[in-house]
Amino acid sequence: MNDKFDKQLQTKHIKPTAMRQLVLQVLTKQKTALSLPELEEIFVRADKATLYRTLKTFEKNKLIHSIDDGSGAVRYALCSEECDCSIEDLHVHFLCSKCNKTYCLNEIPVPTIKLPVGFSLENVSMVVEGICANCR
Amino acid sequence: MNDKFDKQLQTKHIKPTAMRQLVLQVLTKQKTALSLPELEEIFVRADKATLYRTLKTFEKNKLIHSIDDGSGAVRYALCSEECDCSIEDLHVHFLCSKCNKTYCLNEIPVPTIKLPVGFSLENVSMVVEGICANCR
DNA sequence: TAAGTAATGCAACCGGGTTGCAAACCTGTT
DNA sequence: AACAGGTTTGCAACCCGGTTGCATTACTTA
Q: Which sign does the torsion angle of CA B93, B96, B100, B106 carry?
């Protein structure tokens, strides 16, 4: 049963500890992106620093990506299968102003922008705020 | 000399105190968006809370707009003349990963996005990160 | 089993943001 | 000029998300 997560972690070269399996499990079943404080609420008995480092490890190894939606806390969501966190993998995120959940709109890529001369692009973040389908 | 700022404040129904004139002056001559901590560095003798409330007042009265570029601090920049902070006035912002300055790309409007069914739009933030013209 | 490395738990700290409250200030009125 | 009302300011304290140091525990491998 945990084999699936085990394998997933190993694929990304992350040692599959119990904590990591659990966090990956939660992130998998979650439809929306999770912040560290939210993760703390789910794992009430776990240590904040451990959760923090777990997320950082996942992010470093490109199992998850981070979103700063301006809600005050950085959120994290699973990367899709083929994602290698390059510019082409960037998608729009949606923050619901009612339930405060953040959605990955994986099917909506971030539009290309023509920057002024002399400006080079490394990364783009696009966050749409509004009311989500569940809250209306 | 201060008449210009005075008038500008009064137009937005903000009582023109000394502090507010000074902050507006700094924001005017600044080419990039400023955060509260950055403002504190400029006005070393001023109180953090006062600066904070000054920015909040300016924002409420649509003299400035705020940008969360994911750098950890919210930044503020003067609105352009005709701006009334509606969706049409939204523009792309640029965060330089070298000098950490945030630019308003006023001439680049935020592209329109087609959201999934059931999702409604209230606001959009688009921040491009890269190297600015001055740092290359 | 022993040594070495990695992960965890605990505590403390940092920095941006925010608020309560009292003092100072401004404005209009008597 | 003195006063009353409302606004702004300064100071202090606090909140919260994020981050780090360090000792302990768990894992791996010789």
A: negative
